[in-house]
Amino acid sequence: MLPSLHRLPRTAFSMVLKTGSRIHNPDITCVSVKTTNPVSRFAVVVSKKIAKHAVDRNRIKRLVREAIQHLLPTIKPGFDFVLIAKTNFTEKKEKEIEKVMKELLLKIT
Known about the structure:
The protein is of the alpha+beta class.
């Protein structure tokens, strides 16, 4: 589980979506904003278009958060991220998801 220190609060969520810069990937879109926080914070969004069942949406979120947790030491502090899933990650292995996340987050920071 992602530590609460690294979770993006609801109050900052809409601000990131409105003012953030977007980077697209075939699997995921990342919206980011540079902040003055001492840590980077993350939110993961999976729509019903991607996975109809809540169980599948929650599984995708867990897999993405786990990949983020493994990458936390390599991510520069001071960013707020909203990650929007474009494809269904339930068929992918954890290493593949971590590779996609690493490419995307290192492009931004």
